[in-house]
Design brief:
By secondary structure, the protein is α+β, with helices and mostly antiparallel strands. Helix content is 31%, strand content 36%. The protein contains four helices and six strands, in the order αβαβαββββα. The strands form two sheets. A four-stranded antiparallel β-sheet has the order 1-2-6-3. The chain is globular and about 55 Å long.
Length: 97
């Protein structure tokens, strides 16, 4: 695993549930590299967004089985991270959305 923070954080997840948690509990959702651990995710978020992270929760998401006519395929597995920021911290990127 490279130590580049931008290779650990793949993309920001914007969902209805994520919006509610962001406004009420200071929690942000990210898709992260599958082999990244909580410490690496915390350091990556702190360095990319210049905020203080309180805690990180991770979960492995299994890819769904999808069909296209008679052909069956499968989406990739991925990892989700829920990052809770310390009090009076926020990521400015989300305020513009």
């Amino acid at each position: 695993m490279s130590n580049d923070p931008r290779s650990i954080i793949r993309k920001v997840l914007i969902t209805e549930k994520g919006t509610i948690l962001r406004e009420t509990m200071r929690q942000y959702f990210f898709e992260v590299a599958r082999d990244a651990n909580k410490i690496e995710i915390k350091r990556a978020v702190e360095s990319v967004f210049q905020v203080k992270v309180d805690s990180v929760q991770t979960m492995q998401i299994r890819g769904k089985v999808k069909r296209q006519g008679r052909w069956v395929g499968r989406r990739n597995d991925w990892k989700k991270a829920i990052v809770t920021l310390k009090a009076d911290q926020k990521i400015e990127l989300f305020e513009q959305i």
